[in-house]
Design goal:
Helix content: 40-55%
Strand content: 5-15%
CATH superfamily of the largest domain: Aldolase class I
Largest sheet: 8 strands, parallel, barrel
Shape: elongated
Bound molecules: 1,3-dihydroxyacetonephosphate
CATH topology of the largest domain: TIM Barrel
Length: 697
């Protein structure tokens, strides 16, 4: 019990942890994959901080960024679907260990401002990142310890589709984002942002705090002072140092300026305050800029000239590189200087084109997706180019869902349906196999039994007389089977006296579900046993129906009966409605599971089952021999599932319900029917003997 509870807790913890980890990896991989250049810049920052700045060529960092994004995204999806659980949990643990060490270093040494784990989408401080990684590392340890507790969402046979689709999707997403621009832009220079607004410091925003320390000297001794304890003029000033004690508010855009390199003139405000349109061609380094689309750029420049729009190129390149670019592309537009990092933040394309309208970013284009010539035949005021694209974000989200989430969801649903149908099919096949094995087999050596159930009939004298008559008849003509008569409690002690125990067994029709004590009117299993009885009927439908005996009560009764050395004739069976709804198997199985299937194999040896369809009891409507055989074969198959084939072969299963001398031979001829539990026909010695004799035919 305790083990089961621990297992449930563990499985729940592992699966919650796995979903959290999956969500983190998917998000972190995704935001890196849609911005490979941003990830590359971050990797470069790390290498710089480690003193390995120029150790690797730029393209290797870009490849590294794409692979890192694909790795994180794919691991997240694999965790989500619980694919290759052992391997994936090991890789995740290794990755988290490295990440945690790395973040411990950035917390201590502070070499980078933020870790960049989630690109620009969620910026965490180094301390927050460290705490996040400690939690994820703990989850990774748990997943690695119990990988198989992760519940699969797709079967092993289908997982290769998810693996390939995910890896290809992640790489394609990066390639697309590199060719075009990141589909989602989390930087301060996104479409719709007003640059001047982004540079503003709101009123009352915290100012940076500084403290100045003065070093002064007197009589050859130097001492440090602040403004608060500045000494008298007998001290001579030596030096002062100022340190920042608190950071002030930093606006989202704090590093944007446009300078004319030749004149030193700053035209930032002039550009931002221009109420018209301005094209900014942006290239942090012209030496690395892609020049394949220069013709299109020149066309746009001409268009700007024609309509009187400003068109300038912002770069951080040297004059030599500018001249080279002009030489290659024939560029006639003016060049201005802006910080390289700012330019890289503004647009993830080298070169990229940005359109401003009164300082607000209206459009951004990668050099691969510049406006087409046919879009440039009317002024921006009148064309779609001059307007901010309206619904692009929901549309992009929908596209992502359609291209990735939808196919995988459909795959998972199809896979689960398929797994479920094969499971059902297999289970049916197994059950049929067991049933047909039993059907084919000759009746084994298990006991054949005919048991009478007198129910509430016969007074004491009549009962004793009937018992005597049956006993005499059977002593005179030995039966081929075990015979039992089950009588009301009041008969037991007297009937026991008249029966020859080797020939006729004695049983009660019920016993209490309590051991002993203040239970007025009840008769305990121990009392039954003390009369000389060896059997007790339990679970009869009349007791379930009229006296509210539930599976739990019957379970108690069964246990007490067995404990007191009684053999139990345990009844089961369905109502007419249940049979009409074809629920008979389900009902019978539930009855056995509820009251007897908990027994161990040793206790099971003292159980005799009796299938009594309620619709056939006392109605004169017998189940056909085929119906009865089918059910008894099924019951034997579920006993076999529970206790094994051998135990099932040795379990006696009786049929009850309007069984009489006329139909008994046909019923008893069936391989799985081991005898009968007889109601009405057990109240007359001749009728009862007629049924017993069916075993002789
Ligand atoms: O309930 C029965 C035996 O327990 C069957 O009763 P009948 O044989 O009267 O149908």
């Amino acid at each position: 019990m305790k083990n089961k509870a621990t297992q449930i807790i563990r499985n729940t913890a592992v699966n919650i942890g796995r979903l959290l980890m999956a969500a983190t990896f998917i998000f972190s991989g995704y935001v890196k994959a849609i911005d490979p250049l941003g990830t590359q810049y971050k990797l470069a920052d790390y290498l710089q901080a480690m003193g390995l700045g120029s150790f690797l060529p730029e393209w290797t960092l870009l490849v590294g960024a794409v692979l890192l994004a694909a790795l994180e995204f794919s691991l997240g999806i694999f965790l989500l679907f619980a694919i290759r659980r052992h391997l994936v949990s090991k890789i995740v643990l290794a990755l988290m260990s490295i990440m945690t060490l790395l973040t411990l270093w950035i917390v201590i040494a502070n070499p980078v401002k933020d870790c960049g784990c989630f690109g620009d989408a969620v910026v965490l401080s180094n301390g927050q990142t460290f705490i996040k990684n400690i939690i994820l590392l703990a989850i990774a340890l748990m997943l690695q310890k119990w990988p198989t507790s992760m519940v699969r969402f797709v079967s092993k046979k289908t997982q290769w589709i998810v693996i390939n689709y995910t890896v290809i999707f992640a790489l394609a997403l990066s390639a697309w984002s590199l060719w075009d621009l990141p589909p989602f832009d989390f930087r301060p220079y996104h479409v719709g942002a007003n640059i001047a607004q982004g540079m503003k410091i709101p009123q009352g925003a915290p100012q940076p705090q500084f403290e100045t320390t003065f070093i002064l000297e007197k009589n050859g001794q130097q001492k440090e002072f602040t403004l608060d304890n500045y000494p008298d003029s007998t001290w001579t000033f030596v030096d002062s140092k100022t340190v920042q004690t608190a950071e002030g508010y930093v606006p989202p855009i704090h590093d944007f300026s446009i300078q004319d390199n030749k004149t030193g003139e700053d035209i930032t405000q002039e550009v931002l305050n221009d109420t018209g349109y301005t094209f900014l061609l942006i290239s942090p380094t012209l030496a690395y800029a892609d020049d394949s689309n220069f013709g299109r750029i020149d066309q746009i420049y001409e268009f700007a000239q024609d309509y009187g729009y400003r068109f300038i190129c912002l770069t951080a390149s040297s004059d030599k590189d500018i001249a080279k670019w002009q030489d290659i592309t024939g560029a006639e537009y003016p060049f201005y200087t802006t910080d390289a990092t700012t330019l890289k933040t503004m647009i993830r394309s080298n070169p990229g084109l940005m359109l401003l309208h009164h300082g607000t970013i209206i459009q951004k284009w990668s050099h691969n997706k510049l406006p087409q010539p046919e879009e440039l035949n009317q002024p921006l005021e009148k064309s779609a180019l001059g307007k901010m694209p309206s619904d692009s974000i929901p549309r992009k989200i929908l596209l992502m869902l359609m291209w990735f989430v939808l196919p995988l969801t459909l795959l998972a649903i199809a896979d689960r349906l398929w797994a479920w149908t094969t499971w059902v099919k297999k289970k049916k096949e197994n059950a049929n196999k067991i049933i047909s094995t039993f059907n084919k087999k000759e009746k084994k050596m298990r006991k054949k039994i005919v048991a009478g159930n007198w129910k509430m009939n016969m007074n004491l004298q009549d009962g004793v007389a009937l018992a005597k008559e049956i006993n005499e008849a059977l002593v005179a003509d030995k039966p081929n089977c075990d015979v039992v008569i089950c009588t009301p409690f009041i008969h037991l002690a007297s009937v026991a006296q008249v029966l020859n125990a080797e020939v006729v067994g004695l049983g009660a029709e019920n016993c209490a579900d309590k051991e002993k004590g203040a239970y007025t009117g009840e008769v305990s299993a121990e009392m039954v046993k003390s009369t000389g009885a060896q059997y007790v009927i339990l679970g009869h439908s009349e007791r379930r129906q009229y006296y509210g005996e539930t599976a739990e009560i019957l379970k108690e009764k069964v246990e007490l009966a067995l404990k007191n050395g009684l053999k139990v004739i345990f009844c089961c069976g369905e109502t007419l409605e249940e049979r009409e709804a074809e629920k008979q198997n389900e009902v019978v199985k539930a009855e056995l599971e509820g009251s007897v299937f908990h027994l161990d194999a040793e206790a099971w040896k003292n159980i005799i089952l009796a299938y009594e369809p309620i619709w056939a009891i006392g109605t004169g409507k017998t189940a056909t021999s085929d119906q009865a055989e089918e059910m008894l074969a099924y019951i034997r198959s579920i006993v076999a599932e529970k206790y094994g084939n051998e135990a099932a072969e040795e379990t006696s299963i009786l049929y009850g319900g309007s069984c009489k001398a006329s139909n008994a031979p046909e019923l008893f001829a069936k391989p799985n029917i081991d005898g009968g539990l007889i109601g009405g026909a057990s109240l007359k010695a001749a009728d009862f003997k007629g049924i017993i004799d069916a075993w002789k035919k």
